[in-house]
Amino acid sequence: MDPCPFVRLTVGNLALKIPVASKPARSVVHPSSSPCFCKIKLKNFPLQTAVVPYIPPENQFPDNQFQTLAATFHLSKADIDKLAAKSIFSAKPCLKIAIYTGRRGTTCGVNSGRLLGKVSVPLDLAGTESRACVFHNGWISVGKEANKSSSAQFHLNVKAEPDPRFVFQFDGEPECSPQVFQIRGNIRQPVFTCKFSFRSTGDRNQRSRSLQSEPSSSRSWLSSFGSERERPGKERKGWSITVHDLSGSPVAAASMVTPFVASPGSDRVSRSNPGSWLILRPGDGTWKPWGRLEAWRERGSSDGLGYRFELIPDMSAAAIVLAESTLSSGKGGKFVIDLGGTSNGNGTNGRATPGSATSPACSPRSSGDFGYGLWPFSVYRGFVMSARVEGEGKCSKPSVEVSVQHVNCTEDAAAFVALAAAIDLSMDACRLFSQRLRKELCNDQDLHG
After folding, report:
1. What pTM was estimated for this model as a whole?
2. 25 lies in some domain
């Protein structure tokens, strides 16, 4: 499999120094007593915001400080070509940053922060698909006194690094058992097939006919992680999707192990009682759990699909949360696992859509501990994967991007494809129970009951 070129543009190591005025004006909010923030903008990409730490004027920025990310933009080859396109109306592409003192947010429609100054960093992205490039690392004078020694100083690091990915596209909705193609430029090559099925009511642990020959020991995984009890009331249960390679061998699976059940007196799946999927991979002649996806319907103005994905090291170790956020039920969005991303909530994968978000941490339970070597899945770093899904009622053919560094074999890629299918199917599983699902998602009992 040949990957597609991508570039990861990061902005980090932010800091601000402001000289102390001899007679500070009462109207000025000084950053030593109030937080600072900045707005980061790249043409054709959504605005991102980040907190800017304040350091005393006499302090130097430590050269050995760990890289702290404030914003991340992921650029495809098409994005780079667009930014580099010459026009009489556009100059060389630039990263633009506006720095503010005071708190973020608005009051009565007016921004509460006070603009301190703006910074523009020119970008020459040619060749960054194959080599890293640092566009700026150090201090820049900002504000009205930018050319004077008494000006405020803003520190930042802006760099681009190659981040090649495998890109996959479902040729239909997951419940329609589609093919999955690998995409590279204009080339579409089939690599997987999917089989959607229901576990029979007689055998709650059976996932699909294609897996009936699996060893009986594999069935214990489902009963260990799922809820096998019958539940009264409204529920959606027993969905399963198996990913096969072109030879017909099953290489990954997603099985609904906890039914999606409407909470009492409600028409929705609640966060306190989510449905869940087990993502499985073949190993030692049986299926082994790789990850667990929980999903529910958020309340309030967001009214979105809430989700949490965690890795399962083994039966005895605690699960490790890699992603937890919300997707818009109406507009869809991107499910993203990015362990070097930002937690500002304003964008994912550089292209924030309503409801999309990044995963800001890489340690157990999102503790924020960036000590990669301290946890058992330190192999997962940086961008891991993303899956684009559509909102309710729309034809969804999920597209999946997986970082090359996380794919060593066919089963690796297939596991991410199965996870993308589970996310997409969760959008339907979490629909209000007053809404009827398409016939492919209803078993005979649902259709005739």
Report:
1. 0.80
2. no
